[in-house]
């Protein structure tokens, strides 16, 4: 991915201007509050009669150490008590404002202490704030984030996850070669990619044209069913776009306004995380707020 610095700053969303309205995106005005979005009825989905093969949750832009982060962390703990899971996808900006590892107790170990004591494993990727200190190296070395590299893959039975470094200074040439190779060799039923930066978004940063050009063809070719990210501080679930659903769960500690686009299934400016129940033929998605209530449900089918 041959990015010029200026191109990335604009298209990757670091300015937050311009490309929110490109292409075929048809956004409505930003939501004034979560109430506007939440007035829609939560979709009714058939309740499975068997437990999922695997369950995990995702959250991003968490590392503030504020009451908002702790409220989302508490909701994640309460959800675990009724719906046990053993994996959290932590999609970047793990430590604000500059990735200072000395804050790790306040922004990670303390808010998630219940989950950590229960053996829940966090798998992180690096956000733009994380690389401000030593290019993220302290976080790569931190055992609690379980990052064997700047980009990596791991598997749980029929699910294979692919973590990306989506920052402007990433080794894009070798990372894309690696991603193509790993996706093509994978025989997993479910392929899930996560990174920090958005691809499709109705929020502040909008659509990410370079990523649409370089990443989405790989997703379509190799049947990646789900991409999870943060960066934009809201919740958003897209319809399937060429076989891939795009999930923004960047409201793990704060929120910003969000609108809707022609490909948006649901969006909300609300502190929250997302939970995923994986079955052999579908993934059921639930968005959960700090009131411990589900405010959106969706399904991804093979």
Automatic annotation (TrEMBL):
Gene Ontology molecular-function annotations: hydrolase activity
Alphabetical list of InterPro entries matching this protein: Calcineurin-like_PHP (IPR004843), Metallo-depent_PP-like (IPR029052), Metallophosphoesterase_PAP (IPR051558)
Gene3D superfamilies noted in UniProt: 3.60.21.10
Keyword Membrane: no
Ranges where the Calcineurin-like phosphoesterase domain occurs: 55-235
The organism's place on the tree of life at top rank: Bacteria
Pfam families hit by this protein: Metallophos (PF00149)
Keywords: Hydrolase, Signal
PANTHER family: TARTRATE-RESISTANT ACID PHOSPHATASE TYPE 5
Protein name: Metallophosphoesterase
